[in-house]
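Inputs:
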Amino acid sequence: MKLIVKSMGRKGRGLALLAIVLIVAQVLLETWIPSQTSEITTLIQTGEGSSAAISGMAVRMGLAALAAFLCACAAGYLISVVGCESTRVIRQALFEKTVGFSSEAVAAVGASSLIVRCTNDVTYIQTFLQDCLQPLAQAPILLAAVFLRMSFQNPVWMWLGIGAIVLLLGLLAYILLATLLLFKKSGHVRDRIATTTREHVRGIRVIHAFNAEEAYGETYERTNRLLTVFYEKSRKIIATFSPAVSALLYGLSVLVYVIGAHLIAGTPLSQRPEVYSGMVAYVSYIALLIFALVNIVLIMLYIPQIAYAGIRIGGVLNTPDAIMDGPMEEGKPGETGSIEFRNVSFRYPGASENAVSNLSFRVRGGQTVALIGATGCGKTTLLNLIPRLCDAREGEVLVDGLNVREYTLGALRGRIGYVPQTSFLFSGTIRSNIAYGEGRFHATLERIQEAARTGQAEEFIRQKEGQYDAEVQTGGVNFSGGQRQRLAISRAICRDPEIYLFDDSFSALDYKTDSHLRKALKETAAGATVLIVSQRISTIRDADMILVMDRGTIVGQGSHEELMQNCAVYREFAESQAREQVAG
Amino acid sequence: MKEKKKIDRAVLKRIAAFILPYKVPLCLVMLAGVAAALCNVLIPDRIQAIADRIQAGLSGEPDFPAITREALIAGGIVALLFVFSLIFNRRMEHYAQQIGGNLRLALNRKLDRIALIEYDRVSAGDLIARMTADADNVATAISKSIGPLFQNAALFVGALLLMFLRCPPLALCVVVLVFLGAWASALAARRAMPMQQAQRQSLERMNAGIDEALSGHLVIKAFHGEKDVTEAFRQVNDRYSAELKKGQFIQKLLNPVMALVNNLSYVLICLVGAWLMFREGSGVTIGTLTAFILFAKMLATPVTFFAGIMSQLTVSYVSAAKIVELLDLPEMEDKGSALPENVRGEVVFDQVRFGYREGQEIIHGFSAKVSPGMKVAIVGPTGAGKSTLVNLLMRFYEVCSGSIRIDGRDIREISRRDLHNTLGMVLQETFLFTGSLRDNLRCFSGEASEEQLQDAVRRCGLEYLVNSLPDGLDTVLSEQTGVSGGQKQLITIARAMLRDPPILILDEATSSVDTRTEMLIQQALDELSRGRTSFVIAHRLSTIVNADLIFVLKDGDIIQTGTHRQLLAEDGLYAELYASQFSPA
């Protein structure tokens, strides 16, 4: 709730207040109409009213109805403006926050859960604001107005009214509580079904290849059953409400008449008409109560859902920014392209051991450094620490002679061309993909073409319909693995960075393309620092420096020759490769 | 209604197929709804009867036994109303959710049968939306729009009937007003409909943007693309918001219009009623007026329902159409029969042609014969069609012409289950499911014994990973667990090892594994492939020098065939590829 109020802004809050004032006016007018009815009935009953007096009253009542209508329309308009505006603000804030998340934070919440929060959960809030804000504001005002207008000629009427309200509030509280508990207990089932489906779609080939259709289908069936039960339970709780409300209020009407009959029997003849019309008015007010309460029922449908959605959205918005901007734009003069690690350690949240520990090394600008090590030894983690995709737990990472935390993220990442292990393409065109992001330069078409040429992507781009304007579907599904990788490499080249980070980025390329690419890169990106993770001996061999990693630490650094002499782990690697060569 | 979208009867038919199994209980539930509606109509009348009794006794002694009798009848009807509407509401939800659940289940089963080529055309986010939000919309339509149809009709007819029986002139006034209101709100709903469609499209675009931003999160960060995506998102978000604002106001006119109708009918009832009362012999009493006020309210419920139902159903229909579209996607054929027990492993490619799209052929008449037990390597530059060949062999895609035969049987005549059991594959793209490492290794089939599992873990060099995970093999893997790309590949290899298939396909199986570990696995794989036919795709030519036969592919054609030594001697593309690998760049 706080979330919604906050998202409205000052103008929104003002408009909401105005809307509430209009609703109050509307309710007062609407409840005034039945009060006139009882006056008319009394007039007729006593035979005092002339048709002129009655039609005068009717005209006034008609005008009141019209005024109420206008108030309601104006309030409705204001509310839809406020509602749309605040969901827009929430959605934008949520998106910006999510995009700003560190990779760890995304992993901690889970990408599919974040998607559900940004889409479904916001939609729940939006529907709530759309459909419920007006009745929600209206119902209590209506209840209060009805109560004020009811003339409790007899204390019995008042107690009866209070009793009914208490009963209803109890029923409401039960429904709210039961639903909230249910949501807390099994609301996550919706996330689970989305995750299962997502995996099913993405892993469809594996499922087919391993004949796992039935087994995986069973997993889905179990979750689906839970979801169905969850939906059914939550809706059944709410489905109880409206029958209970109408039974209660109709029952009350019957009770009023029965008690009324006895009251009338006990009053003197002269006062009987007055008691009678009081009773009739009381019953018609009870009908109004039905109207107000049925509106509340409609809102009840949403409250647990939006409370749950609100909690989840709040959870995202209140996550502190893990990675903060520093003030600096430029590094130390004369240190361009240098990278230094000083005793750096990093641990993934929730893990019991460090992913990397005590990393220390120094790379001068323009050097090519190769990282080698067994699968899962922390090479990717090391690379990720440089553009601050994750932040070191201990120690310092320096780029251009300055701690990476001191740069603005834009300045830091603008210097770096990063090619991740799995190449991701955005929906759009080839051109938009290569020109992606904010680098140090504006990407012109010539620049894009040059990058594609260096990245060995030009040949296949030429064959595409529309060439650089050829469509790229989400995730790049309409390109082969090797093509995706070459586009991802071209994307890094296009920004002409000081520092290249290649995370095993040539794995889907054949050796020939690989060697062409590196040759071209050497020409266009002369002077840039290159950090490269690779399994290929030819790549590693002519690096200026080789870092050998094993289980999260650096166990050797130096040139190929040096390492052959004094690093056992490296020797093993080199020998395994040498054997391959001999075998050839 | 110029732009009225054509309702496709086929869509309705398909959805109806999910509802029909429940037709008997659903009819019973609807009957309960009608009963509840009838009670609802009778109640004001019965309450009025009490009021009339009291009024009759105003000038004398009230007839208490009669009043008690009327009160008991009214109370009984109220109780019946409660029971019937409770049954209706709860059972309706029950069946609607069952139907929704069955829909999701059918959609999920469909996922396994859709021809894989279709997956390249749809986004995961879109599929998920169809299986969750759209299925939910259909279930809601059943419980909230279709279910209460008869109930509301009964309420409408019942209230109308009673009103005309009581006092035709007053009834006429109310009916005219209520219909005016219904007409106005239907008009508003109709104007809102195209706006709703625009909104839905914008919403989909926006959600696709969110999906993409999260899938490509790493790249966005590394390339500092936050501003770009945020700006792009702001644009769709603003547009959606503007559309929503416009559409909503019109939609929201419904409530004030109905309230106005209600209030005006109040006034009209009083005015006309008073006028009628002054005329002797009309039989109109105050009781009649109060009853009519209740009737007018009661009539408003079904009229609002029917006025809103079109726009409600339009939304649900769009969802239904999307679901049916998914259900109707072309399926993979599976007409084949079982393979005999002992597969020898002879594989023949005969004039195979294939293209993902018509007119864009990728494989141009590939022919080759592989004898049982051979180790066959497929090499060639990126994009030569190597993985496509594997996909064809697995029947993930169907050949356009020509055929592939295993032991002389066309693979189209082998059941998919048997084909996949025969072919063990390690794919280029690794994939882990949320679940324990054990489940991921067994790939959900419980066939492998614990010993075999341990053996595969050891042979694939996964011991380090297993030991470092908090619960060993039972650790649940998900996005949060840090399993590296290379480790994922090892898991995938162990998976294939556990299946022990007659024919092995290794598509870049060790590309992300370091050379030391690769040597270990290679030994295991060599051991595994002894006596079996195996296909190996690898960029690292060292892994294939001992192959019995090497196909060199370029642009979908075999340009060289032979052993390593023969091909080196030929001084063609193979020799070139080989040289580039071992000469420093």
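The two ends of chain B are 69 Å apart (CA to CA). Flag for discussion at group meeting.
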